[in-house]
Amino acid sequence: EVVMTQSPATLSVSPGERATLSCRASLRVGRNLAWYQQKPGQAPRLLIYGASTRAAGVPARFSGSGSETEFTLIISSLQSEDFAIYYCQQYDNWPPFTFGQGTKVEMK
Amino acid sequence: EVQLVESGGGLVPPGGSLRLSCAASGFTSTLYWMAWVRQAPGKGLEWVATIKQDGSEKYYLDSVQGRFTISRDNAKNSLYLQMRSLRADDTARYYCASHPYYYGSGNQDWFYDYWGQGTLVTVSS
C-alpha cells in the first residue's frame, strides 16, 4: 500500500499570500497524483490531476507540481474562498487508492 | 448538470446491515467506473470500493472485504453499497464518486471527478 503523507497539518496564511502544500508518497507513483479541496459540510472537489493539470473551472492561482514521491500544491494568492482542507490522492498503485491525511489552510 | 445523490444512511447497531444507494444523472454513468469513498467524523478520506462499468470487476478496501458489496444497476443509473456486519469504525459519511471516462479514447482514469454530497452512516448501540 502506498502511504501518502501531507505537510504541514495546518497552514496559517493571510489573504493574498502564497500557500505551499506538500504531499509525499512512500513509493514512486509517477505523476498519478490528484489534489482535492474540501470545505466544511461539502463534498471534496477535484482541483488537480496528473500532478499538474487543473480540473475544469479551477482558477489559475492553483498549480501542482512534482513526480514520483514528492508533490506540491501552490495557491499563489489566497482568496477567502480558498480556506479549506486539501487532500492528495495517489492512483498509480491500487488497490487501495490512498489519500493523504489532509492539510488545513486557515486564515492567519 | 452532473448529479450524484446518495441515500440510505442512518443509525444501525453493531453487527447490523445497511444498503446505500447513489442515483446518477446528467452524464452517461454507464460508461464510468464508480466508487464509494468514506470520511469518518473529523477525519480524512478513505477509499472503500470501486466497480467497473459492467460490474465484472470489483475492488475493496481490505477492512471491508467480505462485509461490503458494491454493485450497480445501469438500467437505473444507480450504484449501491450493501454493508453487513457493521462495526463502530465504519461510522462515516459515505460518498459516491465517479472515475473519469475519456470519450475520445474510451479509457478511464483513477482519480475522482464527480462526487455526491454523501450519506451518513452511524454504527452505534
What would you say this structure looks like, in words?
- The complex is a heterodimer of chains A (108) and B (125).
- By secondary structure, chain A is mostly beta strands.
- In chain A, 0% of the residues lie in helices and 50% in strands.
- Chain A has no helices and 11 strands.
- Chain A has strands at residues 4-7, 10-13, 19-25, 33-38, 45-49, 53-54, 62-67, 70-75, 84-90, 98-99, 103-107.
- In chain A, the strands form 2 sheets. In chain A, strands 2, 4, 5, 6, 9, 10 and 11 form a 7-stranded mixed sheet that branches. Chain A has a 4-stranded antiparallel sheet with strand order 1-3-8-7, with no helix packed on it.
- The N and C termini of chain A lie far apart (35 Å).
- The model of chain A has no long low-confidence stretch (mean pLDDT 97).
- Chain B has 125 residues and is mainly β.
- Chain B contains no helices and 13 strands.
- In chain B, strands 2, 4, 5, 6, 9, 12 and 13 form a 7-stranded mixed sheet that branches.
- Chain B is elongated.
- The N and C termini of chain B lie far apart (39 Å).
- The model of chain B has no long low-confidence stretch (mean pLDDT 96).
**How large a portion of the residues of chain B is in β-strands, by DSSP E?**
over 45%
Q: What structural category characterises the helix and strand content of chain A? A: mainly beta
The secondary-structure element order of chain A is EEEEEEEEEEE
Helix content of chain B: under 10%
Summed over residues and divided by their number, the pLDDT of chain B gives a mean of 96
| Fraction of helical residues of chain A | under 10%
Number of strands of chain A: 11
The DSSP helix count of chain B reads 0
Name the chain pair whose interface involves the most residues: A-B, 23 and 21 residues
Shape descriptor of chain A reads globular
Q: What is the string of helix and strand elements of chain B?
A: EEEEEEEEEEEEE
Low-confidence stretches of chain B: none
- How far apart are the termini of chain B? 39 Å
Number of strands of chain B: 13
Span between termini of chain A: 35 Å
Largest sheet of chain A: 7 strands, mixed
